[in-house]
Amino acid sequence: RKMSIRTPPRLLELAGRSLLRDEALAISTLEELPTELFPPLFMEAFSRRHCEALKLMVQAWPFLRLPLGSLMKRPCPETFQAVLDGLDALLTHGVRLSFWMVWSEAMARRCLPNAMMNRKPVQDCPRMRGQQPLTVFIDLCLKNRTLDEYFTCLFLWVKQREGLVHLCCKKLKMLGMLLHNIRNILKTVSLDCIQEVEVNCNWTLPVLAEFTPYLGQMRNLRKLVLSDIDSRYISPEQKKEFVTQFTSQFLKLCYLQKLYMNSVSFLEGHLDQLLSCLKTSLNILAITNCVLLESDLKHLSKYPSIGQLKTLDLSGTRLANFSLVPLQVLLEKVAATLEYLDLDDCGIVDSQVNAILPALSRCFELTTFSFRGNPISMATLENLLCHTIRLNNLCLELYPAPRESYDVRGIVCRSRFAQLGAELMGRVRALREPERILFCTDYCPQCGNRSLYDLEVDRCCC
Description:
The protein is α/β, with parallel strands linked by helices. Among the domains are: 11-104, no CATH class; 309-461, Alpha-Beta Horseshoe (Leucine-rich repeat, LRR (right-handed beta-alpha superhelix)). The chain is 35% helix and 16% strand. The protein has 18 helices and 15 strands. The protein has helices at 11-20, 23-28, 38-47, 51-60, 77-92, 105-108, 113-116, 149-160, 179-186, 205-216, 236-247, 271-275, 294-300, 325-334, 350-353, 357-360, 378-386, 414-431; strands at 65-67, 100-103, 134-142, 165-174, 196-199, 223-229, 258-264, 284-288, 311-313, 340-342, 368-370, 396-400, 437-440, 452-454, 459-461. A hairpin with a 4-residue loop joins strand 14 (452-454) and strand 15. Helix 13 (294-300) runs parallel beside helix 14 (325-334). The radius of gyration is 28 Å and the shape is elongated. The two termini are 34 Å apart. One of its GO terms (molecular function) is ubiquitin-like ligase-substrate adaptor activity. InterPro entries: LRR_dom_sf, LRRC14/PRAME, PRAME. Belongs to the PRAME family. This is PRAME family member 20.
């Protein structure tokens, strides 16, 4: 039987464990404790629930930041309260704290012992002007109807120390919580600190409209992800009013760079209203699984905010029966910057493809191109491949299986797909040397997966 090899504990960890065996001794030696021993000793005290030692270590903490993100994966009420008690002891005695409590995984990774030895402050919070003695960094992911006991305890603790503690949330995900409960949280968090927001709560458009005043206060927002907003069962007049309330908030978002809209039904006929309110040039625009009008597609190419895109994702948004000339104009506009283009499952057919080929062939910065799920023929697919010859930066290409791979019932014939895949790979190799190229079928109704033909293995994979 194979033996698992575990990494032996570092000398500093062993020293911390040894010291904590006598908690009274550990407490009495804190003032003489070498700085480099604090992080491993703190983690050891936290995991082994030495609450009194924790409380005093917080008061003697020598670094600018106190990272709790990874430690709070397995918290217990006693150790968490010990940390808060340690902070209270300092705040009560009027000590102006020189560190930040970090409850954020991304920031915690930057607070490892070596990084913490650097005493130069890093201004990660737009609100930090030295008014509050303590800043608590936190990333919030609201999955449940109510907060867990630790978040509830933290928010109550912060609220009771208003003016002394600044709660900085840079990333906020709302994945199921009721808006009423979200409101209470947003009243505690400094909204202009938030830089990334994801909303995926199956809201209706009227509920989204209730949230929009908070969105407008997130003036440092860089990234917005909005999913599953239902605008059915409301009158056209109400829809127009609610859309105006939502889009007008973008006039206040002067730093927005990434916008993701997935299954957002109110965009149909209103995309120009949103685009006209964008104050910055976007790097990423994703409009996925949405319903658009042909006029919406035309508006995409007209606004300056879209002219420097690095990522354009329209996957799942049906473009069948549309003229793709507006998409051609857009691709021409962003050809110098576009790196990622996803047109999966847009329903694009043979007669539409030619419109975008000249512009596509000039997107020289493109590294990823995905065109799966579009019902095009072998001849059109070969023509498409010819127009990507000069795109030397392409690292990943995903194309649909040619229409000839399917029988009259729309079911893929695997032997035919393998044959056509081999032919396409041979012609690709004759033209250029691609890094990674895959030909993919539609989703299987039984297993929900796509079959693919992979150049690297030169065969069909299911």
